[in-house]
Amino acid sequence: MFNRYVDGLATWAPSDPSLYRYRAQKVAEYGYTHEDHYMPPTTA
Predict the structure, then answer these.
(1) What pTM value is reported for the model?
(2) DSSP characters over the chain
């Protein structure tokens, strides 16, 4: 039921696992309220 609800909201989830590792590291360091960019910095 929850998945249908989320689909109905037109949400998306990143498919790259490295994003989740990046966010987990930031949350562990600063907590959820730290104002940084959601996505990791890109290297050009």
Answers:
(1) 0.55
(2) -HHHHHHHTT------HHHHHHHHHHHHHH-TT----SSPPP--
